[in-house]
Specification:
Elements: H1 22-26, H2 39-43, H3 52-63, H4 76-83, H5 87-99, E1 104-106, E2 116-118, H6 120-143, H7 147-172
Antiparallel strand pairs: 1-2
Helix pairs in contact: 3-5, 4-5
């Protein structure tokens, strides 16, 4: 890949062989960029009290959160345009997200500063949900048989079948 011109994108390239990579799954749709978010956020949307609009607005904020130490600052007008909604609806969603303790508005220091949103409250609310999920998964995995257990069980089952075959052979030798 060294020396490859990254300013152009070959739509027909098939260089990705790992099916789990973003480009392998999304193809050219991932070229303009992609975002990450914790699945526990989506899985617990109802527990967090989020309606579909609030969740979508939150996803826009997450998509603009490029570094842990830098709060996202998308303009509500930009979010409204992307969602096909009015700016007042977005502002109401942002206010609701603040009221639910999921985001905090970072006040502008100067008139030229952009309004930003702190997502650390969301991270704090997701933490116990993620820990609960991990504990449930760990408990489930602890109860699940290991591959060795399954193989041992299969061997025992095969031995039982062999014993049954020997009993049937003995029965055939009987005169009655």
């Amino acid at each position: 890949m060294a020396g490859m011109n990254t300013s152009t994108i070959d739509i027909d390239d098939d260089y990705v062989t790992d099916r789990t990579r973003v480009r392998a799954k999304w193809g050219i749709a991932a070229a303009p960029g992609f975002g990450t978010f914790p699945v526990v956020m989506m899985a617990n949307q109802a527990k967090l009290g989020l309606d579909v609009y609030e969740f979508n607005v939150l996803m826009h904020l997450v998509a603009h959160w490029h570094a842990a130490d830098r709060a996202p600052f998308p303009h509500s007008r930009t979010i409204a345009k992307r969602m096909g909604l009015g700016i007042r609806k977005i502002q109401r969603c942002l206010k609701s997200l603040q009221d639910k303790g999921l985001i905090e508005r970072i006040e502008k220091k100067t008139r030229e500063d952009r309004l930003a949103y702190d997502l650390r409250p969301l991270v704090a609310k997701l933490d116990p949900l993620a820990r609960e999920w991990l504990a449930l998964r760990s408990a489930r995995d602890a109860q699940a048989p290991t591959l060795q257990d399954l193989l041992r069980e299969e061997d025992e089952w095969d031995d039982d079948l062999d014993d049954d075959d020997e009993e049937e052979e003995d029965e055939e030798d009987l005169p009655f």
